[in-house]
Design brief:
Helices cover about 40% and strands about 20% of the residues. The protein has helices at about 20-30, 45-55, 75-85, 105-110, 130-140, and strands at about 10-15, 35-40, 60-65, 95-100, 115-120. It has 5 helices and 5 strands; from the N terminus they run βαβαβαβαβα. The protein has a single domain (about 10-140), classed as Response regulator (Rossmann fold, 3-Layer(aba) Sandwich). Helix 2 runs parallel beside helix 3. Helix 1 (about 20-30) links the parallel strand 1 and strand 2 (about 35-40). The chain is globular, with a radius of gyration of 14 Å. With about 140 residues, it is an alpha/beta fold.
Length: about 140
């Protein structure tokens, strides 16, 4: 049984087209007590629509896990649009983590262009403890 922790962040958003990956990540986040609220979206456009609907109404920080390869709108297109709108939508304190199966160095280098991307995690973390430690370090640095 996992020890009891206070949530690290008020809410998390998982953006991934894989239902299995969302399920596993959701379970890890719950077990690690990372957040009290988890919202799931299946592609970047759906996530942007969700964020726009909450502009200025969200408590900070929001933790966003973003896959790269998704239909409709992939992770890199999401990053471009999020960068254009995050200040206007009051999401400057958002902590974004790329959570993807891509181990390509070019993808990892490309995300360095976005200062709000705080991590790059190749699916799946080994344990809920490791995931909590990674997120705790990112939240402390933000």
């Amino acid at each position: 049984m996992a020890p009891t922790f206070d949530p690290l962040v008020p809410s998390a958003l998982i953006v991934d087209d894989s239902e299995d990956d969302r399920y596993i990540l959701r379970r890890l986040l719950k077990k690690a007590a990372v957040t009290a609220e988890i919202v799931e979206k299946v592609h970047g456009q759906e996530a942007l629509d969700y964020l726009e609907s909450y502009r200025g109404k969200r408590s900070e920080p929001l933790l966003i896990f973003l896959d790269i390869n998704m239909p409709v709108m992939g992770g890199f297109e999401f990053l471009e649009k999020f960068e254009q709108n995050r200040r206007a939508w009051n999401f400057e304190g958002a902590i974004l983590i790329m959570f993807t199966s891509s181990e390509h160095a070019s993808d990892q280098e490309r995300v360095l262009n976005y200062d709000f991307v705080k991590g790059y995690v190749v699916k799946m973390p080994q344990s809920w403890e490791a995931l909590r430690e990674q997120i705790q370090a990112l939240v402390a640095c933000s």
